[in-house]
User: What shape does this take?
Amino acid sequence: MERKEYQNLEMTKEKLNVFWFRRDLRLEDNHGLCRALANGKKVRPIFIFDTTILSKLPSTYDRRVDYIHQALLLLQQKLNVFGTDLRVYIGNPIDIFKDMNRVVSIDSIFCNVDYEPDAVRRDELVRAWAVGEGIGFEAFKDQVIFEKSEVMKKDGTPYTVFTPYSRVWKSKLDPKDLLPFEIKDDWFEKLDLKEIPTLDEIGFQKTDILFEEPDIRAADINDYDKNRDFPGMDSTTRLGVALRFGTISIRQCVLLASEHNETWLNELIWREFFMQILFHFPKSLTQCFKPAYEGIVWRNDEREFEAWCNGETGYPLVDAGMRELNETGFMHNRVRMVVASFLTKHLLIDWRFGEAYFASKLLDYDASANVGNWQWAAGCGCDAAPYFRIFNPEEQLRKFDKDLIYVKRWNLDFESKSMCKIVEHAFARDRALRAYKVGLGK
Assistant: This one.
């Protein structure tokens, strides 16, 4: 993708700080932005559509890019109220900062920490360039409550099992950890309004996604523990995408969860658990957390994988989930577990195939959670449960969608006689157990 420079390069001799929005697309309770505005120098807010990321996306019809674009438009409107503007660029971040530094006297670059391996490498490169130019680079904890090595075992090693991690996480939580960061709006650089590049200029198409500013209230989570497993009830918060792109504050969410629903709080802690797993064990992005599981011989049947992708396995709940994903970019969490177990255990297809497909489709795609949950389903991750946990998709249907509310919503031909089961459950379960035993040398 060709790099385009939008001439947002206003000349100035005054030393400026730059705040670089990434996974934090909001003004409210934004840690790094707060620190930048309290630094004593005017702050220029920017966002970069990173072409190293965009070029890897499989389609120009991507709801996530459209979501970001719409979120930026709202962010720009809010900044305009303060007499400033959002400068948006398309290209490689280092190239953008080099161009900017030729005409703007940058004192420091402020941002919030990103923990995924590719993001860590990107930030290390930008930091190294900045230091070489005499420019500061400061990154702050914002998308999590506890980061990196803040929740560790007594011997200084990271937790690899969720329950003890969550226990220590909760013991460390202090009310001050949830205090919002207030911004000083009078420290923004005064900038004239300039239009944000269109989706077409970025190289993408308009999609059917409609960005709505996220909000969460006690009423939304009071019964979360009772209803979250029933996809037909649509009783989840649907805040995954907002947390992924930072259009809502994690502190706001944890504060509400800690006061109203521990089950939802645990889900938020799972998010941080998987983040620290990927940070400490970056190889788990593409390799089994438990190395012994690399010995499993996967079938990887292409026709069966295609049938799974298209929601044509003959199992109503599996097919409904895949069709919901394909049509909307969302899938209910209980159904995600069922379809992932089906792919890895019933069809014996490598979890990396499913992880990549979800990565291409999920609106709320987050590498750490996606990889962590797929390895959980395949039994090769950091979870303590044994490999012989295999969901029965028919039993899951009877238990969580017995009235077929969800299935009828997304799988209209579930009663069609032409939709034969791709594999019988009992046969597939036995085959999976044999393959795992052989692969693990049991």
